[in-house]
Specification:
Largest sheet: 7 strands, mixed
Number of strands: 13
Strand content: 25-35%
Order of helices and strands: HHHEEHHEEEEHEHHHEEHHEEEE
Structural class: alpha+beta
């Protein structure tokens, strides 16, 4: 059994799985109380605190006081970031709770005239701590964080009564006689996220379908070459379908034929084309999506219940759904076997130079 010192620290992910345990509830009032607790219970924070209310359900908590350390641990993680990802850090004590319950959180701390910023989405870091010019939010306090609640589990609308109640309860736990919270109402103004003000990144582009295979091939194969693609495909087949025999032929003009036995793709299931269009939990392996996503054209020929079927894709899109085809007479016994042949041309727009 592990000792107490060996147990892993509680991460922001746990808050997302057990919000009631860490927030006491799932209402916006509970989250605001936790945000204020983060600093009320941290003795280094200089009060009063400032709670800024923005449009679009965004909030900022800011304070003055000594700078939060930005030194790195042995694993490269920054002390400042750990305040928002794990408990037991030398900084705002409940920051990880707020981060775990937020869809987005940006944090800053000033070291003299230099600001250090970091950013999180769904509790996970997307921007590592780095030095930058002071963000506009520094006018509310030398340190702080801006967050948007994750409305997939944080419920309720903000009301003045809820805000006052959250402030008073957090103040009572902080041991202050009077409520040292200055509320700044900017609810008619959109929030200027601290990170975006300094690094105006372009909007994130969401890749649909098999676009990720076509636009980011290096994520899936070691080198952007046909040889690397074929090597990865065969490796996946051997690992996922060890009982299936395969025969690979590279034809003139760069066309590739891959025959697999015993293997068939039933055309009468609910989504017969899924193994070629997305990674599924079917008995088939990842190789089919990889081949389809990186091919100019893919023709699939399969036998099932003694009949032959075919379908086709072009650059990842289905162009010919599964349909029954007649035997061509080249192999009289083929229809009686479980057999599948993939005929594909690696896309020359991906594999430049062959």
């Amino acid at each position: 059994m592990k000792t107490g010192q060996e147990l892993p620290l509680v991460a922001a992910d746990v808050v997302r799985r057990r919000p009631e345990m860490y927030l006491g509830g799932t209402g916006i009032e509970d989250l605001l109380r936790a945000a204020l607790d983060t600093l009320f219970l941290w003795p280094e924070a200089v009060k009063p605190l400032r709670l800024v209310l923005w449009a679009d359900d965004v909030y900022t908590v800011a304070f003055d006081g000594p700078a939060v350390p930005v030194d790195a641990f042995e694993d490269g993680a920054c002390v400042f970031e750990r305040c928002f990802t794990r408990t037991g850090s030398a900084g705002p004590c409940h920051g990880f709770v707020v981060n775990g319950a937020s869809a987005r959180l940006d944090a800053w701390t000033l070291h003299g005239s230099t600001a250090y910023l970091c950013g999180f989405v769904d509790g996970h870091r997307w921007l590592a701590t780095r030095a930058a010019p002071q963000p506009l939010h520094a006018r509310f306090g030398a340190h702080g964080f801006t967050f948007r609640p994750d409305r997939s589990f944080i419920t309720g609308d903000l009301s003045l009564e809820a805000l006052v109640r959250a402030r008073d309860e957090a103040t009572a736990r902080g041991g202050e006689v009077q409520a040292p919270v200055e509320i700044v109402n900017r609810m008619t103004e959109p929030c200027e996220w601290p990170v975006e003000v300094v690094w105006p990144f372009p909007p994130i582009k969401l890749l649909e379908g098999l676009q990720v295979f076509r636009l980011r091939p290096r994520l899936f194969i070691k080198e952007v070459t046909v040889e690397s693609l074929l090597s990865q495909v065969l490796r996946d087949i051997r690992n996922e379908l060890p009982t299936v025999r395969h025969r690979l032929d590279v034809r003139a003009g760069g066309e590739v034929s891959l025959t697999l036995e015993p293997l068939s793709f039933p055309p009468d299931v609910e989504d017969p084309h899924d193994p070629f269009l997305r990674v599924t939990h079917s008995p088939y392996c990842y190789a089919w999506v990889l081949v389809n996503g990186m091919s100019e054209r893919l023709d699939v020929r399969t036998t099932h219940d003694g009949a032959r079927y075919a379908c086709a894709f072009e650059r990842g899109d289905l162009v010919e759904p599964f349909h029954r085809v007649e035997a061509d007479g080249t192999d009289a016994d083929a229809a009686s076997r479980l057999s599948t042949t993939l005929i594909f041309r690696p896309d020359p727009t991906i594999f430049v130079g062959g």
